[in-house]
Every structure is written in C-alpha cells, then in structure tokens.
Design brief:
Layout (H helix, E strand, L loop, with lengths): L2 H10 L4 H23 L6 H5 L2 H34 L5 H13 L2 H12 L6 H8 L7 H26 L3 H8 L4 H12 L1 H16 L3 H6 L10 H11 L1 H27 L1
C-alpha cells in the first residue's frame, strides 16, 4: 500500500465534526442517566435496603414470573416462528405484523386489551370463569400472562431469523431418510437454531423482568402476589427514593448481565 493510500485510508476513519458532535451528544444522552443512578446510589445503605423482606419478595416474584413467561413464550413462540419461516401459510405477512405489534404497542394498551379479553367479564375470561372457575386478572398467573404477551415477540423474531438463516436442505435430507416433519423439526431443526432460541429466550426473559405497564394494568400491584420489581420501584419512588434506587440497581445489574450474555452474538 502506497503512503498516499494509507493517508486516504486513515483519513476515511476520522469522523467529520458534523457527525461526531451529535454522536457524542447521543451517547451522553443514553449514558448520563445511568451514571447518575450509580453516583446517587446510597451505597452505604444498600445492604440494608436490599435486605428488606419486601425487596426479596418482589425479586422472587419477578424471577419466577419472568421465567414462567419465558417458558410460555418458548412453547408457543418457537412453533409460531417455524410457521412464519418454513411455510407459505396464507396471510403470513399479516400474521408477522400481528406478532410484532406488541413491540410497538404501548404496554398499558396491551394490559387493557388483556383485561377486555381475559378479564372476568372479558370475551374469553367469562368462559374461563364459568367453566373452570379460573380468574387471571390481579393474580400471579395474570403477571405471567402480561409478561408473556410483551416478551414473546422478541423470541419469535429471533427464532424466525435463525430459521431463515439455517439451511433447509438438512431437513429435506432427514425427510428423504424417512423422518416425519415433527421428527425432523425435533432432531434436526431445533439443534440448528438452538443459539437463536437461546438468544431469543434471554431477550424475552429480560423484557418480561422489566415489564411494567401491562402488568400493573392487568395484574395490579399487590405485594407478595403481583408486585414485581418494576412495580416495587414505582411504589418506592413515592415514599422511599433510596429504596427505589436500590431496586433500580438490581434491575440494572440484570440488564448488564443480559448484554454480556448476548455480546458474542451481537458482535460476532
């Protein structure tokens, strides 16, 4: 490489000031609130704040409900992703749009929609109550339903992308050897897209853990029953700001852990 070419190549890596300045402002806009959270955190009182029974109850409920919501998302979302990626079902574009709708729908609106459908007087909820005596709103099961509603699209999108990237010829080879479509899916397709399923499950779990709007609308905010960590943060901000900061630090730590888990997939 000639010296002039090296100079041009080095110069092409220097960002122009017109782009560098707004980029730095955008970075500061995203990072400074998190830095402020760390700076203003009551580190000396943090062990006492986190030792509160209410905090551990909210954390326990958050972990259980987020894990259950992720399990529901995997059971329903993986077949849905396969349907979108491997079949020519009529209205596939509309189905994909409906699947991704919770990503852009305000969570509170999602909670209202769940209440109208699964509430005691809802379209499906009325039948569940009369036939099985099952009531979902304002229960722990309602928390799982609300979290699964907002988290499942993350898993479906991730798994569908992995399925589209996987070579379908392996499944065709399994079919020529006598394997049924279900056997090929279980023995061939799932191992091929396992990294995509794992990444989608982690994203869905993190989204479920941080869900607020749909949960408080559909399940309420009852300590020990429906009060998850985000709801506990909201409630603590009204009376105990230091407790709210401590709870926020726990959620921040979880978010950083999720990013570290997916770093190899995003940067690979």
């Amino acid at each position: 490489m000639t010296p002039s070419a090296r100079t041009r190549r080095a110069g092409s890596r220097v960002p122009p000031l017109a782009l560098l300045l707004p980029a730095l402002l955008g970075l500061a806009f995203l990072v400074l609130p998190l830095v402020g959270l760390l700076v203003r955190a009551p580190w000396s009182a943090l062990p006492e704040q986190l030792a509160s029974p209410e905090v551990w109850e909210a954390l326990r409920l958050s972990l259980i409900s987020a894990t259950a919501a992720t399990a529901v998302s995997m059971v329903l979302g993986v077949p849905l992703a396969w349907l979108l990626a491997r079949t020519e079902v009529p209205g596939r574009r509309l189905i994909r749009a409906l699947v991704t709708l919770p990503l852009v729908l305000p969570p509170v609106v999602g909670g209202v929609a769940l209440l109208l459908v699964l509430g005691r007087n809802g379209i499906v909820g009325r039948w569940l109550d009369s036939a099985f005596g099952l009531t979902l709103p304002f229960t722990t099961a309602g928390v799982v339903v609300a979290e699964a509603f907002v988290a499942m699209p993350f898993l479906v999108i991730s798994v569908e992308g992995a399925l589209r990237a996987a070579d379908p010829r392996y499944e065709e080879a399994a079919a020529t050897l006598g394997a049924s479509r279900l056997t090929a899916f279980r023995r061939v397709t799932l191992p091929l897209v396992a990294p995509g399923i794992g990444a989608g499950a982690v994203l869905a779990w993190a989204r479920a853990l941080g869900e607020f709007g749909a949960t408080i609308t559909f399940a309420g905010n009852f300590p020990g029953r429906t009060q998850t960590m985000p709801l506990a943060v909201y409630l603590a901000m009204e009376s105990e700001p230091e407790a709210a900061i401590a709870l926020s630090l726990v959620l921040l730590a979880v978010s950083i852990t999720v990013l570290a888990t997916l770093r190899g997939r995003w940067t690979g």
